[in-house]
């Protein structure tokens, strides 16, 4: 996702609402800009983010206990 697209999406939220957001940047990995530009669009659509959601759900449930 491009930063401008993330900003556009975030504008839909109440500006005072708390959200959890995770980001990864090319500099977090040992990858070239060329490779990163090919990886990112595919990661948005191909990765299974359900484990991340499940981990966050477990965290929230343990926090509530």
Lay out the secondary structure.
Layout: H1 3-10, H2 33-46, H3 50-64
Contiguous runs where pLDDT drops below 50 for at least 5 residues: none
Distance between the termini: 35 Å
Major sheet characteristics: none
Number of helices: 3
Structural class: mainly alpha
> What is the residue-averaged pLDDT?
92
Order of helices and strands: HHH
Helix content: 55-70%
Our estimate of the beta-strand percent is under 5%
Oligomeric status: single chain
What's the Cα radius of gyration? 15 Å
Shape: extended
Number of DSSP E strands: 0
Word description of this protein:
It is a single chain. The chain is an all-alpha fold. The chain has a domain at 20-64. It contains three helices and no strands. The termini are far apart.
In short:
The chain is mostly helical and 65 residues long.
Structure keywords:
mainly alpha; 3 helices; 65 residues; extended
């Amino acid at each position: 996702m491009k930063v401008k697209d993330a900003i556009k999406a975030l504008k839909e939220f109440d500006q005072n609402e708390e959200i959890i957001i995770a980001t990864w940047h090319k500099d977090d990995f040992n990858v070239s800009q060329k490779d990163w530009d090919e990886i990112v669009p595919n990661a948005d659509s191909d990765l299974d983010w359900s484990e991340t959601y499940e981990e966050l759900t477990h965290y929230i449930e343990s926090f509530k206990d």
